[in-house]
Amino acid sequence: MTASQTPAFQHYINGAETPPASGQYFETQSPYTGKTWGLVARGSAADVDAAVAAAHAAFQDGPWSRLSATERGRLLYRVAELLRRDAEKLAAVEMRDNGKLAGEVTSQVRYVAEYFQYYAGLADKVQSHVIPTDKKGVTCFTRYEAKGVAAIITPWNSPLTLTSWKLAPALAAGCTTVIKPSEFTSPSAVVFAQLFKEAGFPDGVVNVVTGFGSEVGNSLVEHPDVAHVGFTGGEAAGCAIYQAAAKGLKTVTLELGGKSPNIVFDDANLDQAVKGVVAGIFAAAGQTCIAGSRLLVQRSIHDEFVGRLIELVKDAKLGDPEDPTTQIGPIATRPQFEKISSYLEIARQEGATCVLGGRTRPDLGAGWFVEPTIFTNVHNGMRIAQEEVFGPVLSVIPFDDEADAIRIANDVLYGLAAGVWTRSLHRSLLMSEKLRAGTVWINNYRSTSFTTPFGGYKRSGIGRESGTEAVMEYLKTKSVWMSSDLDLPNPFVKR
Ligand code: NAD
Q1: Would residue 239 show up in a list of annotated catalytic residues for this protein?
Q2: Cα(265)–Cα(273) distance, rounded to whole angstroms?
C-alpha cells in the first residue's frame, strides 16, 4: 500500500470529519501482518477544546437539550438498527486493528446493537420519586438530570463494545459525549460515530477525538466543561484519570481489569468446567479484563483436570483472524506482546512449571503470537498469580477446601470477576457471598449482558456499567421542594 492509498481517519467533531489542528497523523497497524493499514488524526488540546465546545453547546442550547426522553430513546433505537445493518463493515475495521477473530468481532458488534436497543427502551423509564417528609405543607420530589458532557476513554481489546457500554447509557441519560478511543484501535470509533448523524442525532452529541492518552486523554479529563469520565483500561491510566478528575471534582466510572479466579471443586461437572476454564482464559487470546487467569482447582482432581485442559487446548490453531478455521488470533499490540513475553520468563524464574505452550511464535504473521500457555506449581504469592498479564497465560493453583479457595481467590488486589464450578447449591451460595468480586459466575464464565450491572471491587474499579445502574452514573439528583400550604414563619419572631 502506498502512502496515497493508505486511508486516513479524521476526528469526528460537531457532525463532521475534522482534520487535526496540528495537521499530524500517526500510523495504525494490523496485528497479524504488522503492516500499517491506516493513518489516524493525532489529536491535541486544540481538538479536545473544539470537541468539548461542540458537546457543551449541544448539551446547553442545541436541539438535543430540548428532546424528550422518549425522543432520545427513538434515536437510540435507530442506532441499534444501523448497527445491525453495518455490523460486518464495522467488525472488519475493528478486526484489522486488534486482531480478534472475525466471527467473534462480528457477533460482538451485533451484540452492541442490543445495548442500544436496551437503553432506547430505558431512556423514558428512569422515574424520579415523590418523597414524604417531616415538613407539613410541602411536596418534595426528585429530578434526575443529565450530568453534561461525558468523556469516554477506551482501550484496544473490545473497542466498540467498551465504548457502547458507556455511550448508550450516557445518551439515554441526556448527556453529550466526546470519545477518545485507544491509539491502537481508533478507526472503528470514527466510522461508528458517523452512524449517529444518519440516525438523526443532532450535531455535537457524539464526537470523537483520536490520539494518545498523554495528548488527548488528559486534556479531555482536565477540561472544565467535562462533567464525567467513563474509562476502561489499565490500572495506571485509571489512577491518573481518577487523580485528574478529582482536581475538577468530576465523577468517574473506572473499569480496570483483574486477576480473576476460576474455581473448580471436585464435585463439579468437569466436562463443563474444562470448557468454561478454557474459554475464560483463551478467548480473545486472554486479552480481556474478565480473563479467568487463575485456575484454582481442588487438590484431589488437580492432575486429572490439568490433563483435560491440555487435551482441549493443545491443538488450538493460531493464525490469521480472518481465516474462519483460526481459533486463537495474534496479540493486539506490540507492547502487549512484549509484556506477555516477559511474563513467560518471570513465571519460569519464579519456579512455575510450564505444562503447555510457553513460547512466542515468530513464524506466524508479524510474529505477535503467544501460544496458549498453562503454568502449574504456581503459588498465589508469585507475580504470575498476582499481576494482570492480559494474555493467553493460565496459572494453576491447588486448594484444599472451601475456606482455602476463598482465601486464595480473595488474596489479590483486584476483584473484577470469579467463576465457581460445583454441583452443590450450598457451596454456590456460600462462594457467591464470600468472593470479593463484582461478578460471580456459577457453572458458567464470561456471561455478560446489557441488563446486568458490571464492574469491579477493590482495584478493579469504581462504578457500574450495563443495566439500569449504568444510566444512573450519567445522572445527578436534584431535590425540589414545593410549598402547598406551608405557613412560613417570620424569621425575626422567636417561637
Ligand atoms: P491504557 O490504560 O494505557 O489505555 C487505555 C486508554 O486510556 C487509551 O485510550 C489511552 O490512550 C488512554 N490513556 C492512557 N493514559 C491516559 C491518561 N493519563 N489520561 C487519559 N487517558 C489516558 O491501556 P492500554 O495501553 O490499552 O493497555 C495497558 C494495560 O491495560 C494492558 O496491558 C492491560 O493489562 C490493561 N488493559 C485492561 C483493559 C480492561 O478491559 N480492563 C483493557 C485493555 C488493557
Answers
A1: no
A2: 9
pLDDT of 204 strictly over 50? yes
In sequence order, what are the residues at sequence separation of 6 or more whose Cβ sits closer than 8 angstroms to the Cβ of residue 494? Answer: none
Q: Mean per-residue pLDDT for 133-138?
A: 89
Site residues for ligand 1, CB cut-off 6 Å: 153-157, 180, 182-183, 212-213, 217-218, 221, 232-234, 237, 240-241, 255-257, 289, 336, 339, 388, 390
CA 168 from chain center: how many Å? Answer: 13
Pick from 414, 466, 467: nearest CA to 238: 414
- Predicted confidence at residue 4, as pLDDT, reads 59
* Best CA proximity match to 188, nearest among 142, 143, 155: 155
Can you count the helices (H) and strands (E) in the chain? 14, 23
181 SS3 class: coil
Those residues whose C-beta lies under 8 Å from the C-beta of residue 491, and which sit 6 or more positions away, are none
End-to-end alpha-carbon separation of the chain, Å? 86
Would you say residue 422 has pLDDT above 70? yes
- Structural contact between residues 372 and 392, judged by C-beta atoms closer than 8 angstroms: yes
Ligand 1, atom 29: closest residue by C-alpha: 234
Residue 407, all three cell numbers: 482465601
Q: 0.90 cut: is pTM over it?
A: yes
Active-site choice (183, 289, 371, 388): 289
Query: d(Cα 396, Cα 296) in Å, to the nearest integer?
Result: 6
Catalytic choice (255, 371, 388, 473): 255
